[in-house]
Amino acid sequence: MKNDLTTSRRELLRFASLTTLGAGLSQGQQPKPQGDTVYEMKFEPRKTVRMGFIGLGGRGTSVMRNFAAVDGVEVLALCDIDKEKLPRAQAILEKLGHLKVPTYYHQGERAFEELAKRDDIDLVCVGTPWNWHVPMAVYAMKQGKHVAVEVPAATTIEECWELVNTSEKTRRHCVMLENCCYGYNELLVLNMVRAGVFGELTHGACAYNHDLRGLLFSNRGEGLWRRTDHIRRNGNLYPTHGLGPVANYMDINRGDKFEFMVSMSSPAISLAYFRDQKLPANDPRRKETYRCGDMNISLIKTTKGRLITLEHDVTSPQPYDRINLISGVKGIFRDFPPRIYLDSMGKDEWGSIDSFKAQYEHPYWKELGETARKLGGHGGMDFIECYRLIQCMKEGIVPDMDVYDAAAWSAPGPLSDLSVAKNSAPVPFPDFTRGRWKNTSRAFGKQTG
Hints:
- The chain is α/β, with parallel strands linked by helices.
- The protein has helices spanning 9-26, 58-68, 85-95, 111-117, 133-142, 157-170, 184-194, 213-216, 228-232, 240-249, 270-278, 357-360, 363-375, 381-395, 403-410, 412-421, and strands at 49-54, 73-79, 103-105, 123-126, 146-149, 174-176, 201-209, 258-265, 296-302, 307-313, 325-328, 331-334, 339-342, 427-428.
């Protein structure tokens, strides 16, 4: 869980080699399955979900708080190499009524292995820097644990396949914690899509456009490691927040799939400009060279012919925007701010989404919205996400999101790198489901038993 920006030549060469390998895997060199599919695999039902948390920085602590607020969750173990974070996390648990003191793990970068080896943990939550997501998730699955991993789940195609193969081999679920799939508007629009309000779908648009310049140069938290990818990569570094909800609208991996994508990046200017305006002349970070373009735009074509526009920009001055657009033959929805236009409205102007809430508000928000908003966490979506995963585990049903979603939604990261490097050439998506995406019997959030 080392949080620094030291990127050696060896590490850069390793990333380059993985990118090359990933390119081969994306173009049909599909690895052989190492176990049976987990495509519709149910959890084993249980009354209590016993959890261990790896990584207790800002995001890791927030997720822990939301999981701990769900009835039937018992937190048994906490892991972070910064041992001062552990009692702070425990204090949060105590305020939520968790009086049993969890075991601490903090002795070095491999301390998480001791947590994962315990035989009294059902679910391991990984909230560490990106480069640790796959090693920790894979190790935990090999120790017989289900895993909830933060986004992106993986940063290379090889890692995507490693998650899929390990999940299948160990018969353990690996669920990516894509909280935006549980946002109020996202679930409202999902219900409207399924009710046919927009008619047959044609295209969607999504983004992670978020001014993170201050965070990227912070001397704590993500500022200690997140700039690394701006130095070594040029593509979409963080695709899943916008893409996950649009993938659900289109039933990706459940009747349709991502087929191929093209990607291009603008010049990499804004991050260095911000740095030079804010940092003293002798700051060593002034020597860094950034490769990742300020704006990356990718176009994804699905097997059914639908089009998805995917954007990433975290270094330009701008308001937060995930776009969250879905369009069909009857009309269109676009978020940030939320607005809708339908043929049936009879007006050539955007309308409010408010009149649709009574009919299409998702049951998760009807039942849990008040509690979720009080807890916070991105407007309450974090609690809804955690509640739903625990519900699936307790009731012994198929999770809303599985390892195939984790891989497919993370894959635009490395594939965008590859397309940009090849002058925006099209690059195919691997089929992580190995053909099971054609199964339309399940859909996001619909399993009830």
